[in-house]
Amino acid sequence: MEHLERDVVVVGAGVTGLTAATRLSAAGKSVVVLEARERIGGRLWTDVVDGQMREIGGQWVSPDQTALLETLDELGLATYARYRDGESLYITRDGELRRFTGDIFPAGERTESEITRLIEILDGLTAEIDPAAPWAHPRAQELDQVSFRTWLEQQTDDEEARENIALFVAEAMLTKPAHTFSLLQALLMAASAGCFSNLVDADFILDKRVVGGLQQVPLRLADRLGADSVRLGTPVRRIEWDEFGATVMGAGVRVRARHVIVAVPPNLYDRIQYVPALPRLRQQLQQHQSLGLVIKVHATYETPFWRAAGLSGTAFSPYQLVHEAYDNTNHGESRGTLVGFVAAEQADASFRLSAEERKGRILESLAAYFGPEARRPVTYYESDWAAEEWTQGAYAASFALGGLTRYGELQLQPVGPIRFGSSDLAGLGYQHVDGGIRMGRRLADDVIAAAREEESA
Q1: Cα–Cα nearest to 68, from 193, 188, 172
Q2: Where does the record place the Amine oxidase domain (predicted)?
Q3: Is it the case that residue 455 has pLDDT exceeding 90?
Q4: Is residue 368 assigned to a domain?
Q5: pTM for the predicted model, two decimal places
Q6: Which CATH number is 55's domain given?
């Protein structure tokens, strides 16, 4: 067993933990990062599978993500625009394939009008929400006690309009059925991106990608710390803490530190034993948060054949197994790649199938949008983060009904020398890399401020 002493131990080598660690190191603090996986990056993972580069985890950069954009610039990482020329596709409730441009799906005059009206209502409500403290809204409890699906049913009798609005938050973002989370949780999701309209606008929210992959952000941050400061394959099993600091115990290492930052998703907090145990409300908080479920599908073809047909590669339908798809062709490649998503209850059902049957049904769904050529990719891969031991879901944790007002304010409160944080707890940039960076900066600044207070006491 190796024994170390540091000012700060960071648990988790994702973008939050590494942002915090590099900021602390720059401020003169001694830091060690303990990571359970045998790789750096957390929910960012760029890898080559069957000879094809894949963004297995997070990948997109949007204009509002200023913390991420600043970091990319600082690290010298270039971006490129997602291909979006041409028309998008929508499959109606009756199975009709329609081409369109713009943000509103071509679902018929009345339904389109209802979709527009609902977006306007949601934009108005979102403008009242502080993403850093949604529980502070005067009607927070009311908004947190009604499911998003129930609220939509109260607003319109147009089922197709309801299904399309739900798609933007339930399947596309929280990856949970719309009856399982509250209107307030949906408004937080929208507020974190600036407004609900931004969630609807694929050209905004999925604007750019990083040349060479987004995992380069945590990799380059880790390089700045140095190999001795990041320990891979070192899951933390126990944290003994008191008012003077903590002893953090992982595989083969024991570290005494004044401060600890636990920078992992909330569903993994209880993989660590805390001595003494965490306060009761903190334990309750963790039981009311969970990750959703999604299959991210990567299908690569010899050419991006849809472009010749005047299509952007963007497709949507709440009535298809693949509820959304995009042109995900890598920078500089002649091959074409489609990325598609199967979420929530559709993902539940898909995982009950054999791998071959699941692949067949997913490709059939892509073919419903793009034609028979979509059935014949040269490489095919499914990102399955629910099977990852140190993630167990996608894309981020959200609260069950009523949980956001009941426990949200507790999330960032320290427990003695221990602080918790990740993109799951962010306001702006919630569940995105941008939010992870913001959280890392905040956690580091909180530790630095606390250390100054201790020194002056």
Answers
A1: 193
A2: 16-448
A3: no
A4: yes
A5: 0.97
A6: 3.90.660.10
In 10 A of CB 209, how many CB atoms? 20
For the purposes of burial, counting CB atoms within 10 Å of the CB of 1, is it exposed (0-12), middle (13-18) or buried (19 or more)?
A: exposed
Strand partners, 111: none
210's tokens? 């990083």
Residue at 334: amino acid letter: S
Contact criterion met (CB below 8 Å) for 415 and 282: yes
Q: Identify whether 407 is part of a domain.
A: no
**Of 64, 55, 70, 62, nearest in space to 23 by CA:** 70
pLDDT tens string 322-356? 999 999 999 999 999 999 999 999 999 999 999 99
Per-residue pLDDT, 14: 98
CATH number of the CATH domain containing 248:
3.50.50.60
Domain limits for position 321? 46-63+79-84+205-209+294-387
The angle subtended at Cα 53 by Cα 51 and Cα 54, nearest 5°, is 125
Residue 429 neighbours by CB under 8 Å, 6+ apart: 65, 67, 68, 192, 423, 435, 436, 437, 438
